[in-house]
Write a structure and sequence with these properties.
It is found in: Cell membrane. 61% of the residues lie in helices and 10% in strands. It is α+β, with helices and mostly antiparallel strands and 180 residues long. A hairpin with a 2-residue loop joins β1 and β2.
Length: 180
């Protein structure tokens, strides 16, 4: 009896540690491989508990291999995601280098214009970011006129406003200010 209780506690702990992500999700939200790995490990755990006279090591080795397979998938996904981010960063830096080379070859009048950076915030917490407006060569008056075009008379109505390189605005409104 004592052997079964110890096995139940140890194997349950291993299940929770090894398959913690799968055990917290619905079966319908999991991939087929996740379900197969969890059910296979559960079967091995049941076999180890039901047959206390058999040694635990021959049943524990495949159990640990299933956990290793399950966990290694997440490590591979993380590695692939980091690699993908690394590739995007290289492409961005190459594009930035191209922009700086293009700027050197531009006509002198064109070289003075620098487009805004992606995601340049113009309003944060209902306050105008004058430094970012200066970067794009605009004034607070211009920003107020642009907001009026959208029907906002008070800058405090806008919690956050970002402008992309094409001049599109993305804004988050202050939920405590009413729209006049």
């Amino acid at each position: 009896m004592g052997t079964s209780v110890i096995r139940i506690l140890c194997l349950a702990l291993l299940m929770f540690i090894g398959f913690r992500k799968s055990l917290s999700e619905k079966i319908s939200e999991q991939s087929g491989l996740d379900v197969v790995l969890v059910f296979s490990a559960s079967g091995l755990a049941v076999a180890a508990i039901v047959m206390p006279e058999r040694p635990l090591i021959p049943l524990l080795a495949p159990f640990l291999i299933l956990i290793l397979i399950y966990r290694s998938r997440f490590w591979l996904y993380r590695f692939a995601a980091k690699w993908s981010i690394h590739e995007h960063l290289i492409q961005y830096l190459k594009a930035a280098d191209f922009r700086s080379m293009r700027k050197k070859t531009m006509h002198p009048f064109e070289a003075d214009y620098e487009p805004p950076r992606p995601g340049l915030s113009l309003i944060e917490n209902g306050k105008v970011r004058s430094d970012n407006l200066e970067q794009i060569g605009k004034t607070p008056l211009w920003l107020r006129q642009e907001l009026r075009k959208f029907g906002y008379r008070n800058i405090r109505q806008v919690n956050y406003l970002r402008m992309d390189p094409l001049g599109n605005f993305y804004m988050d409104l202050n939920k405590y200010m009413r729209h006049d």
